[in-house]
Structures are given as C-alpha cells and as structure tokens.
Description:
By secondary structure, this protein is α+β, with helices and mostly antiparallel strands.
Amino acid sequence: METKQFKAESKRLLDMMINSIYTHKEIFLREVISNASDALDKLYFRSLTDSTVGMKKEDFVINIIPDKQANTLTVSDNGIGMTEDELESCLGTIASSGSLAFKNDNELDENVDIIGQFGVGFYSTFMVAKEVTVITKAFGSDKAYKWSSDGVEGYTIEECQKDNVGTDVILTLKDDTDDEKYSRFLDQYQIQSLIKKYSDYIRFPIKMDIEHTHYPEDENAEPETHIVNETLNSMTPIWKKNKNELTDEDYNNFYTEKFMDYMPPITHIHSKNEGTATYNALLYIPSRAPFDYYSKDYEKGLQLYSSGVMIMEKCADLLPDYFSFVKGLVDSEDLSLNISREMLQHDRQLKIIARNIERSVKNELLRLLKNDRENYEKFYDVFGLQFKFGIYQSYGSAKDTLEDLLMFPSSFDDGKKVTLAEYVDRMKEGQDCIYYACGETKDRIELLPVFEKVREKGYEVLYFTQDVDEFAAKVMIQYKEKKFKSISDGDLDLETEEEKEENKKTAEESKEMFTFMCDSLGGKVKEVRLSTRLKSHPVCLSSEGSVTIEMEKVLNSMPQNENNKVSAQKCLELNPAHPIFAKLKELFDSDKDKLADYTKLLYSQALLIEGLSVENPVEFSDLICSLMV
Ligand code: ADP
C-alpha cells in the first residue's frame, strides 16, 4: 500500500506535536471530542430535512472506549463521517484554521502555549499516540475507509469494513516514560475528569462504560464489580448556564477553543433575554484582530443556534459592519430549525435580536471606556478604525451609536487619546468649534504653521492621523452641537477685534500685490491673502470649499482615482508679521520678476509643509540655486 506524505506545513506541526514537551497533552481529548460533536451536529441537522438519515435526536452519541490490553483509546461517533476525498483533504493537510496560528517559526517558539490555549485539532493526538487510525463511513456512501499514520512516515488510506455511518478515532498510546505516563489516559477517573473539564457542554451524550465496585458488608466476600454505561457530560451549553456558575476562566476557555483565538478576549457579554425576543447570547470582544480582519476575505457574523442546535456558522445579519469584530453566538427558541438563509434575512425576531446586540455591544464598550480605560484604548487601537469607517459609510446614520466610542490623539496631553465628550467638556469659554488638524503623524501636525497660533489661543486640537478621520468628521458635521473645524480652513477666525482692524488695513494696502502674486502662480491658487493664523512661519495654504487639502491627498492616493484627480481650492496665505512680507512689498515696487519667482518659491514651500509634493521640483531647485549664487 502506498504511503502518502503530509503537506509541508502539516509536517512541521506534526513534528512539533510528536516532540512536544507541552505539559497539557490532555487537550487532545477535547479536540477529538469536539470534532466528533461537529460531525454529529452535521448529521443531526441533515436529519431534520432528510428522512433517509433515519435517526432521532437521542440516537446521536459519542462513545469513549479505553482498552488497557490493546493500549488504545477509541473515540467513536455516529456523525456524518468522511468520504475518501475528505479523509485525504482533512487529515492529510492541517486544517486551515490551525495553520493561522503558525505563521512563522519565531512565533512558533514563543507561543508553545498556543497548543493549550488554541488547540490544533486532530494533530494534537500525536502528542499522546504513537499511531492514529481513523475508520470512517460517510453518510450516503456504501464504502468505509481506514486512515492510518504514525505521524512521521506519512499516512495510508485503504478501504475497509464498517457497518454504521460515523467515525472511530483509535489512538495507540505512546509507551510510558519516567516523565510521562500516557497510560493514564486509559484510566476511567482520568477520562471522566477530563471530560468534565473540557467537554461538559457538548450537546450530545459522551458515554463510557464505568466500572462500579461494590464492597459487601461481609469482609470475606469478594467485592462485586458491575459495569454501567454512563453519560459523562452535563450537556448544558455554557451560554445556558447561569452567570454565577461561571468564572472568567470558563468564559475565556470557551472562547479560545470555539473561536480559534489563542489570546483571551478583552471582555465578554453574557445575556439571557425574554420579551419581544427570547434568546441567550454570549458575545466576545477579541483583544487582537484576526490576520485577515482588514481584508475583504474577513467574514463577520455570529453563530446562530435554534434551541441549542447550530443552524448557521456565521450569521452576518446579527452584526453591523462597525461591530464586525464581535465573536460569539446567539441561541433562540424563536427561530425555526430549518429556516433558510433568505427567510432569515427578513425574520422579524432576528432583526430585534440584532438591534439588542448592537445596543449591548455599545454599552459594554462604553462601560469599558469608563471603568477600564487602559483596556479600552488597547481595544480601540486595534478596532477603532472600524468605527470611523462606520460613521462615514453610513453617511452619518451610525453617528449616534458610535460618536461616544471615538477617540483621537490630542494636543491636550501630548498626543494622548481623548474622547469627544472630554474635548467638549473642557472647551474654553467662547470656543465654539472642535478644532482638528490633519497630518501623517503627531510630529508633522505640530509642525504645521497654523498649529502654533491655535495652540497659543489655548484651544485643544485633535490630531487626525488616519486617512478616514476627516471624512468621518465631515459626515458627522458636529458633536453636541459643536462643529468640527480644521485648523487649515480658510475662515478660522482667531483674531481679536483690534487685530482684525489692523489686518484689514494691511490687506487693503497689499491688494494689488496679492493680485499680482496670484496671477504669477497661473491659477494654482484661488487667492493670495493675508493670514491671520500664522505666528512665526511666513506662509501656509488653506482651502475653501468641500474638498480639503487632506482629502485631496487621500482621494488622489486611491488607485481608482488615478485618472480622476481631485483638487482642493487652495489659498496662499502670507504672514504680515514675518520679515519676508516687507521684502515682498519692496519687490512689488522695485522688481516684479523677482517677486514672481519668490511667489513660486513660497507656494512650493507651503505645499511641502502641507505634505504635498512640489509640482515642478526642477524649477524649484533652480530658483533656490539662483538665490544662493
Ligand atoms: P478543525 O476541527 O479545526 O477543522 P481538525 O484538524 O480537528 O480541524 O479536523 C480537520 C477536519 O477533519 C475537520 O474539519 C473535519 O472535516 C474532519 N474530521 C475530523 N474528525 C472528524 C469526525 N470525527 N467526523 C467527521 N469529520 C471529522
């Protein structure tokens, strides 16, 4: 018989399993039982619509058979089974879910504990078994197959005999060593306690023959043993238990196992609801984003159960996009078992549940923000971007839900994140806008010429460092009736009445010069004008109209806008207090050609300060050189 080789990635994992010095090898049992339970779920679900299955709910069972003579432990289920192809693809290649955790070797070394927290499925059996045999017959097939492997030399698949549909996983345990007693996994008490610990909530009975020894009162009589086939698990799913029966560890264990994450979640929400909709929900807020979270491959959704039976792996309708990071499940008696996806979308109950879930996620996040700021910020660093997209993409209709969850770095405490409520609460007397500044980083923003002046006025500035920030602010328009205002906006209105008078006079006097300068830029700016918001810098750009300079940058960097560049309406602003201003005035009277060159230079400088590129770098450099010689 031909021996087939494992795929390279599987091989690496197998090596790790076989040579594992991991101390919690016992989790292999949880993994095998969880696979058996999934297989039962699939066939049970099928039986609801397909009478040829011919089984009732009570018929589905997992049997554990320890055999001390043969040194084997068998886990047997009468679930859906595997076809020959499935055997090949499921057990010959590591399940993709497992592979996610093994991106590179470094990660592997550092995270040996992921075996325990995360589980690595079927292959974990090789931590305790020197040989694994899987005998299986798929529902609807008349042939059975046997898969066999020592984990090292590859595996074999051959046809075999099996009467009923389902799967037997037979583990031939490794030999005991001084350090490790593998034979303990054949001990009935050991097995009973492992099942209580890891698999208690499995919905199907996990049965085993238990030996009961009865010691008669007559000391001379032989003790009697009899065997009873017992169910080892309580079969109550964790979400149906009472909160006070459960510890954080119970919740976290369930999460890491069920949702394929090796990090415990930041927080969980466990709710039981009666009323317009009757359901239990167990929701988790993860502490890290799945690697594909910000890609189009990521599928949001909650598991959906109807009275304990899973009817959908990922029900997307239960979560708005901006809460797509939430993991968890909903179990409702109100939903029919064989409701179709299409029907589900229109289901009134489901809509009510979805609304409740949205509310409870929001409230939990607000609670976290209030009581555990550090963890909220950690969460926000990972998922906060989603809220801003949410506001933008909903055209503002998600504003009410999300605005209090937003945070931005601010000038208040050297770039520490603040909420909008905090900003508004400490706004200065007479301040009527929420000021923000756009830029790649805090440092860049703080170097913006206008930043200085706004700071000097004592106004706090929010740092918009993510592309979506300003778009979200534009859609929100205001928070608690305070309008968002970019410090790069033309009409910033920061001066006192006297300053205004003064500036008006200077502007009047320089009117002709400004017109000349504007013309010499050949339409690149709408206007050259006096700036009222520069302190020590000579120039800056401001924008007018709906497209800001920052939006121009973002929109033009998107590939789909390659041939359709947008442009903000720019104004070049000059600082009348800067010595260069006097120089310009002098040139206006004496040397207009030079003034035109200086204007180009100043404009290029302003572009650079804004983080835009100079339109004609060669001309720019030539002009500087001619000044230098
Ligand atoms: P995972 O359970 O995370 O998908 P595993 O490595 O544990 O990964 O299992 C791989 C696959 O093998 C399962 O997804 C399932 O398709 C199949 N499988 C494992 N055990 C059984 C079983 N008892 N009955 C049917 N299919 C099984």
